[in-house]
Amino acid sequence: DFRLGTRPRRRAPAFRRSLRPSCSLLFVRFPVEQLPTITAQSPSSLIAFPFDESFPLTCEAKGNPEPEFRWTKNGQEFDPFLDPRLMKEENSGTFVIPNNGNLTEYQGTYRCYASNKLGTAISKEIEFIVPNVPKFPKETLDPVVVEEGQPFVLKCDPPTGIPPLQIYWMTINLQHIEQDERVSTGLNGDLYFSHAVDKDSRRDYCCFAAFPRIRTIVQKTAMSFPVSANAIPERRPSLLTPSGVRSEVLLVKEEDLKLECIAEGLPTPQVEWVKMGHQLPAKAKLENHGKLLIVPRVEQDDGGKYMCKAKNRLGEAVHYFTVTVEEPPEWKLEPESQLSMIGSNVHIKCSAGGIPEPVTTWRVNGVPLQESPAANRKAFRDTVVLHNAKASDSAVYQCEASNRHGTLLSNANIMIMNLRPMILTPGEESYSAVEGKAVTMHCEVFSSPPSTVTWSREDSSESVDGHRFTVHDNGSLEIEQLEKGDTGQYTCLAKNTEGLSAINAFLYVKDPTRISAPPEDQQILIGTTLETRLCLFFFFLSLCLRGSVDRYLVEEGVLHIINVSHADQGVYTCVARTPVDQDVASALLMVLDVPDAPENLLLSEHKGKSVKLKWIPGDEHNSSTTEFIIQFEESQWEPGNWKELLRVPGNHNSATLKLHGHVDYRFRVSGVNGIGTGPPSEPTERYKTSPRAPDKNPENIKIEGHLPHEMDINWEPLLPIEHNGPGLEYKVSFRRQDLEDDWTEHTVKRHSFVVKNTPTFVPYEIKIQARNHQGWGPEPKIVTGYSGEDFPSAAPDDVKVEVMNSSVVKVSWTRVHKDKLHGHLGGYRVNWWRLRSLVDSKKSHGERQMLSFPGDRSHATVPGLTPFSEYSLIVMTFNGRGNGPGSHPASFKTPEGVPEKNPVFRVTDVQRHTVSLAWAPPLEPNGILTGYLLQYQLINDTEEVGPLQTVDVSNADTTKWVLRELEPLSKYKLYLRSCTAVGCGPVASEEVTTTLQTSEYHVHGGISTQGWFIGLMCAIALLTLIVLIACFVNRNKGGKYSVKEKEDLHPDVESQGMNDDTFCEYSDNDEKPLKGSQHSLSREIKAGDSGDSLVDYGDEDAQFNEDGSFIGEYAGRKEKRASAEIKAAVQTPA
């Protein structure tokens, strides 16, 4: 918004406002004569600092014709072009004074004049100041002797210089003189002593005056200030400064009010301040130990009467200040530039306020109004009136308002002319707008007198009309709520008494831009990569992001932010913009992170056993804190190792911490939220607790008896931090529970104790109490335990076996009496072994197997037996010491079962219509074989199979068979099962394809004819032969059965409750097996240590397979017969 004058802020009547926008363009595009206007000038005060290279005096102006410049200095004409030392600029009024050391001659007050044929504009007065280097005078100062207790003032009298001035009192060694309520520096720089004391004596009091704007510090000659000793009488206060009872203070608005009262007296007086009839201003502050009252940036309300009061116990002294606040001139109504038509009356108004009231003077083209009279011009106090103005009255009028605190100057360009309308807006302009929005088409007009502006459509000579159309004072046409029908050509017509002008404009109404898929609010974990769809739009995307550009990437409407940080949190806005409109959509991105470390940890409420810890939680980073973890570290036992002490809910910011004695603690806190645990805070200061007696006794006391006549007592020792002081030890007390004995006590420092010579397995009461040098811990709890265990001395009686099926039996017995257990009952163990197969009467001692059944029980289930066999078993009990003696052996027989799978089933010959088969009987027939079930069917390579054909081989000795009447070149599936009276066993199968010829055959799927299988079987046969040879050699050397070897190693254990002839048949029998040694029945096995312990075997509801075998695993392996060899048979007619 352009103004012809220098200040474009104030509004003018409408008919004037319509002209002003065009004025700014006249200087650029149209040859219209214009009055000069100052566009740039130097500040009112220009200081020539010695460290600056040059000093420009600026004066720039514009006008048509181009203005010419001239200067005055101290009211006299000054031509910079006559001084070759000055630097000038072409087409400018600015000149530059170089800093060549000769600046004093340029000191003075300057003013710039910019003129053309229409008038003259002037600048403000510019004062060029060349400061002198401030110096203290050279002088010799005699020492001044002051009696102790008397007041004294050291004068500084600093030189004048460019403010601000800063005063420092120091010694020759640049040590500051200490100041307090007794000694202080006044506003004038003097050093005041309320009363002298002996320590004030020194010879090097120096006053330093600093002038920071000119970067200068000067020093006064050092002063000597000896203090003579004397009696120090007390006296009432009096003021050293200011003098008298009242003083006047005058200052200008916005300056700082500084009131000072420095008093002498003994004791040192205290100074108080009041404002008479009012409170001290809220912004007031006291400095210099209360002797200086400062009210910054005073307003009128800060004026009034102030009082300072200096008092001690002997009396008081007061001083009153009358503060007056004045103001420099300030515009009430600044003169404005005007464009008026010939013959009109022109009023130029100017009004300013201030304290004291400013004096207003008028100039025309820089000349005082009274020195340039005009018949049609009259001047009043605040108004100049031009009657029946003529073109020759065009001029620059200056209004200047001044008082003792400053001067205001304003130029007003007054143009008197008649001009036909000149439309400044280019014609044939095109405007694009969006349906439903508004558009403004411009028609800027410059004319005098003001023009009437009208708009019309191309299809009508009438002016546009309606509530949607508005023609503004500046000639622009605004159309609201645009419709598609508003598209077309519009004409602007400007008309006044001098003529008319017109231009055309074109309007296009378009559909609005819309974002079809706006972004959505998101939460993302810090350090990860964000991938979010910004928005879908019709035209293009404008995206402005702060921070590192490398971390931001936009691809096909998707915003990628790599390594998201806290700075990335905020609202992201997608802007779809066209030349005529835009659509905006925003989304909030919240960055999730663990909580920041808590701050300002504070320990309070220090007590012997606790302390209160407070903290200020850190930033939660958009995930609420669920809890705080308080950790501690101590300096004696594990320095540097932080341990968790306490957790408190996330809505707490304090906790009471229970502490141990004689520990030097530090604490820290970390927050936990849904993201994780945040970093810990800075640790607190050290807090050491006093030593005290233990707060607790040992826990987890264990009483064990590893030997029959001993009792081992072990416990979990107190942690070092739980000692609560030095000298920790434990008192172990014990007594028999079944006797009313006194407590036997022993004091130990370790955390175990062995009681000797105890009866076997009797109950004891034990208690353990901690103590240190400070005293005993709390009364301990009594625990009960037993002395050492011994082996059980009795075996279960009445052992009976009930055969459940061919592989499972149920064993029952009579429990061993608790007096014979000699310890804690671990349970019962059942040992069994296979004597022989009932198919073969030859005895074959099987591997001994064992199952453990924990707890007090009288029966158990033994699974996994071989059908049609004879077995023997024994039952024994066990405790923590080991096994008891075994029961008398009980023998039983298992009934027949189905046979095992045939180990060998193969095709030996294949012809066009026949297939020859051979097989081996099962290794375990599990009964008396009654024959074999042979089946076959045609399968070929289709989904359909032929009927299943069955051949019943009733002779158990038969191991060959020939299938006849088969289809040539056909594939068959063959099945073989071994059978007993109980049923048939699992299937062995083969596939074979008959041949087209009678000499060749091919077997499908049978591994028995594969080369690798034949090689494997040969290797197994060779290995078996080597083992058999080794066993026979060992036997011939007199080797014993392995069980016998173990019995020889433990004669005392094996002999308990067993007859020598119980196992005789298994020790030296000629038919004993050659396998590895079986498990000893009398090993020292504790309860729960057996890998064969299956509690479920003891339940009568145990599950079994259809053939009666037990479901699950059990210890031991079955004895296997040697595989039968089957020789290749020669085909014979059936």
Automatic annotation (TrEMBL):
The Ig-like domain extends over: 36-127, 131-224, 237-324, 329-415, 421-508
Gene (UniProt) = chl1b
Q: Which UniProt keywords apply?
A: Cell adhesion, Disulfide bond, Immunoglobulin domain, Membrane, Repeat, Signal, Transmembrane, Transmembrane helix
What Pfam families does the annotation carry? Bravo_FIGEY, fn3, I-set, Ig_3
Q: Where is this region: Disordered?
A: 674-701, 1048-1103
Family membership: Belongs to the immunoglobulin superfamily. L1/neurofascin/NgCAM family.
**How does the entry describe its membrane topology?**
Single-pass type I membrane protein
Checking Gene3D superfamilies in the record gives: Immunoglobulins
The protein's name is Cell adhesion molecule L1-like b
Residue ranges of domain Fibronectin type-III in the record = 597-692, 697-790, 795-897, 899-998
Q: Name one GO biological process term.
A: axon guidance
Example GO molecular function term?
A: cell-cell adhesion mediator activity
Membrane-crossing residues? 1012-1033
What Gene Ontology terms describe where this protein resides (cellular component)?
A: axon; plasma membrane
InterPro entries given in the database record:
FN3_dom (IPR003961), FN3_sf (IPR036116), Ig-like_dom (IPR007110), Ig-like_dom_sf (IPR036179), Ig-like_fold (IPR013783), Ig_I-set (IPR013098), Ig_sub (IPR003599), Ig_sub2 (IPR003598)
- PANTHER family registered for this protein in UniProt: NEURAL CELL ADHESION MOLECULE L1-LIKE PROTEIN ISOFORM X1, PROTEIN SIDEKICK
Record field: compositional bias (Basic and acidic residues): 683-701
Task: Tell me the CDD domains matching this sequence.
Answer: FN3
Q: What organism, scientifically named, is this protein from? A: Salarias fasciatus
Family matches, as SUPFAM superfamilies: Fibronectin type III (SSF49265), Immunoglobulin (SSF48726)
Q: Where in the cell is it found?
A: Membrane
